Amino acid sequence: MTSLSPGSADALLFDLGRVVLDIDFSKAIACWAGHAGCQPEAIVARYVRDEAYRLHEVGKISDEDYFASLRASLGIGISDAQFLEGWNAIFAGEMPDIAELLPRAAKQMPLYAFSNTNRPHVDYFSKEYGELLGHFRALYLSSSIGLRKPDAEAFDHVVAAIGVPAARIVFFDDLAENIEGARSRGLTAVHVTSPRDVENALKALGI
């Protein structure tokens, strides 16, 4: 656990997926398989987060182009609307306790979010979880800023935008590579493997 103490942070920075919002990608697979009339396992075996996925996350290719790429790689002839339905089905609600922790933390210091995501997901979660996300002063989203974690320039961009020294920002993420990326740019980082990790870190900060 990173050493945290009251007064050691001026801002908190949260990843969204599996830190604030629960994600279940099997729901997308099941939806697509249903539309395609195939077994989910057939899609799982072919699905990869490839270059098209990364380009979509930084806003460099359109949703239509990404879904066309999926259509080819997965070998299923479903429509863009059917792809979108599955794509947005992955949101499985709020992470446990986060709806209580965020407002409590926001009373003590500014909260920000930093997520690798794409435009359809942003459109969806902004509407579905607008109240919860309202606790963040700003959201830095890869598809908007054109940069993604764990790249150094992505963290540098977000730190500059927040306007607080990197060492005074506590960053929460569920992926080890993003934790390493954040630490390499001077941020204090907490690897979230369960909702308790967020709660314990906030307690250590005196929140």
Enumerate the strands of the largest sheet in spatial order, edge to edge or round the barrel: 5-4-1-6-7
Poorly predicted residue ranges: none
CATH superfamily (homologous) name of the largest domain = HAD superfamily/HAD-like
Number of strands: 7
What Rg, in angstroms, do the CA atoms define? 18 Å
**Tell me about the biggest sheet?**
5 strands, parallel
Overall tally of domains: 2
**Number of DSSP helices?**
12
Principal-axes shape call: elongated
Q: How much helix, percentage-wise, in residues?
A: 40-55%
Which sequence of SSEs, written as H and E, runs from N to C?
EEHHHHHEHEHHEHHEHEH
State the secondary-structure class.
Answer: alpha/beta
CATH class of the largest domain: Alpha Beta
Span of the ends, CA to CA? 17 Å
- Second rung of CATH, namely the architecture of the largest domain: 3-Layer(aba) Sandwich
How would you describe what is shown here?
With 207 residues, the chain is an alpha/beta fold. It has helices at residues 26-36, 40-46, 51-57, 63-74, 80-88, 98-106, 119-128, 130-133, 142-145, 152-162, 176-184, 195-204, and strands at residues 11-14, 21-23, 91-94, 111-115, 138-141, 169-173, 188-191. It folds into 2 domains: 11-22 and 94-204, 3-Layer(aba) Sandwich (Rossmann fold); 26-88, DNA polymerase, domain 1. It is elongated and about 55 Å long.
